UniProtKB/TrEMBL annotation, chains A, B:
This is TetR family transcriptional regulator. InterPro entries: Homeodomain-like_sf, HTH-type_TetR-like_transc_reg, HTH_TetR, Tet_transcr_reg_TetR-rel_C_sf, TetR_C_16. It comes from Streptomyces capillispiralis. Residues 37-56 bind DNA. The keyword Transmembrane helix does not apply.
Amino acid sequence: MTSSKPPAPRRRSEATRAAILEAARERFAADGYERATIRAIAKDAGIDPSMVMRYYGNKEGLFAAAVAIDLMLPDPASLAREDVGRALVTHFLAQWEENDVLTALLRVGATNEAGAERMQGVFREQVLPLARRFCPDPEQVPARAALVSSQLLGLALTRYVLRFPPAVELDTEEAVAWLAPTVQRYLTAPYPG
Amino acid sequence: MTSSKPPAPRRRSEATRAAILEAARERFAADGYERATIRAIAKDAGIDPSMVMRYYGNKEGLFAAAVAIDLMLPDPASLAREDVGRALVTHFLAQWEENDVLTALLRVGATNEAGAERMQGVFREQVLPLARRFCPDPEQVPARAALVSSQLLGLALTRYVLRFPPAVELDTEEAVAWLAPTVQRYLTAPYPG
DNA sequence: GTCTATAATTCGATAGAC
DNA sequence: GTCTATCGAATTATAGAC
């Protein structure tokens, strides 16, 4: 009873699950929800389509799992007030280049209700608290967070989704130099009315 | 030979064509390319699906026709340098609320290559020339135009597509007050390096 | 745990009657 | 000019063998 613990009861399931998730992220990021078929994802992962169903139930479950990992959020406490803008833009761009989850989320969110709701969740749980930390008037917090999101997501849209050539060719330092003052202003400047 | 000209040789074709286009714009704007089915569009227009094929050949042709109308562009000559930003944001928001074409274009552009290319066309033919008019250094024109697009499309994305509540609730004057200085800076200010 | 086979829909597109 | 009927392809999802 004490000695024999078989090496691992589940044969290759963990590796298979991971391969499916990685392929799913790539496909969702490249094609959006509808055109990222379970068949294509399974083919990329080198397994049978029915395995996808077995592990994730249905296509919605697969998408939810594929975009479930935590991302972003430089912790608000570590940021000095005078360069929130720069820190935020830098961190945002780095996250975006690092993996496909954000692109998948944005592309799917444009045509799929579940995707849009997940994006709203990220906004609510990550951007709102950060704005709350730096904005004086609590009543202005949601609007300011939305403005920050509009600029950050707008750059991601033109750069990674629509691929406007000048937006693609912009190097990281240029993008940060231009956007940081904008984000800084949205978060900390008085209302420009 | 001279007297009898039948009221109209083509019975109702013109009205039918228009009804199809309007329904198509609404569906593409609401659902994106894949989920906006020809069947659903035909039903909205109150005609048979085969009529859509007869008039527009195939689904791609229908989409091209639905987003073919000219939009935007406040003519560059009429704008004073010191308030390009305000004028541009105001005009952009008005166009966006006025009809479904821009939302359709954005939603489709996120998952469909033809849609993305059409958006690039709008950028190239409408935003680039405008930036060329106000930017000193010709070499910086494309980047500045891309930055302007990123902010304007980013607001449209969060407001009309992803529907972040604070972005939706922003009224026009607030949006203009916040975004105008950003756009103004992207177009006319020196590079903030 | 993995795959084969297939059911059940749904969609774009075509042919042809009226 | 409009509609009926239908084809052929592709998709999600299931049942069951190994």
